[in-house]
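Quick review question:
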């Protein structure tokens, strides 16, 4: 039996930018061990496997390190792929992710389209007070961190550690210190730091960000951009409503993530994250281990 898949780039204004994604359609018969092996074989930040019917397709998100309950670019990319292949209709639909139902809106275009996903209301978590330790963990000096904004864990579905820095130069130099950053982030219940700068001359973006960790860097992270938008509104850095977040510039894969942060009655509501998706390839798997086979994961 052949198993079809589609390749696309997410949060990208052009092909071969943004964050790449492989979407495996009609994946009911693909075993979990094989999903894990395929995620390692592709080596991308995430790939997805779609099971279930058109009413609420189930989307399973896998990284080379294991399965995730939720992530931004796989949700946006999978939604456009499903609409382009007729698995869901254009307009509003619901996908079943590991965190539960997630609403998505899709508008198709030639070779892709645009999708908007609704994330959760923000949860503002722990703040790191030891700024010297934090700067050292990122290979920076303490004075390169923004003094009047906290380094804080924020979640709109998946927790991320947000770290504001003063300049794009500092953002570009930030690097994960392997003996320091994992101990810091693991204590916060996360794996990465979402380092960002709001001083972005020459662009209309509200911020430029990098998701960095010892395991590598991600060119576009919708599950982190949502919390960042909520953070910027919460601390009065940006007005409520739509804003652009740039990512992936330093990697040569520029990404544009649109974050919409509503405020009603003084409270931030459910954050929406949107972006473009470019479909650039398709194929099929033709030789998979039987579901009962033992696969090294």
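Suggested answer, residue by residue:
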């Amino acid at each position: 039996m052949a198993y079809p898949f589609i390749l696309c780039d997410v949060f990208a204004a052009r092909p071969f930018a943004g964050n790449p994604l492989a979407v495996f359609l009609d994946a009911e018969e693909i075993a979990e061990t094989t999903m894990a092996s395929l995620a390692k074989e592709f080596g991308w930040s995430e790939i997805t496997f779609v099971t279930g019917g058109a009413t609420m397709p189930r989307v399973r998100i896998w990284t080379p390190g294991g399965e995730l309950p939720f992530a931004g670019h796989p949700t946006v990319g999978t939604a456009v792929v499903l609409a382009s292949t007729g698995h869901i209709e254009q307009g509003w639909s619901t996908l079943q992710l590991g965190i539960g139902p997630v609403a998505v809106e899709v508008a198709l275009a030639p070779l892709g389209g645009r999708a908007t996903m609704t994330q959760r209301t923000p949860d503002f978590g722990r703040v790191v007070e030891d700024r010297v330790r934090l700067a050292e963990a990122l290979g920076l000096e303490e004075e390169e961190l923004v003094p009047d904004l906290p380094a804080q864990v924020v979640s709109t579905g998946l927790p991320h550690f947000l770290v504001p820095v003063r300049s794009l130069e500092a953002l570009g130099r930030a690097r994960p210190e392997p003996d320091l950053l994992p101990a810091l982030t693991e204590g916060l219940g996360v794996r990465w730091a979402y380092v960002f700068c709001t001083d972005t001359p020459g662009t209309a973006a509200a911020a430029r960000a990098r998701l960095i960790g010892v395991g590598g860097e991600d060119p576009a992270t919708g599950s982190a951009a949502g919390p960042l938008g909520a953070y910027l509104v919460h601390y009065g850095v940006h007005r409520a409503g739509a804003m652009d977040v740039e990512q992936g510039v330093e990697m040569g894969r520029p990404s544009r993530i649109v974050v919409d942060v509503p405020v009603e009655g003084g409270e931030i509501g459910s954050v929406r994250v949107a972006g473009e998706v470019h479909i650039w390839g398709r194929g099929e798997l033709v030789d998979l281990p039987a579901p009962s086979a033992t696969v090294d994961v």
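Why it works: The radius of gyration is 19 Å. The domain at 3-117+278-285 is CATH 3.10.310.10 (Diaminopimelate Epimerase; Chain A, domain 1).
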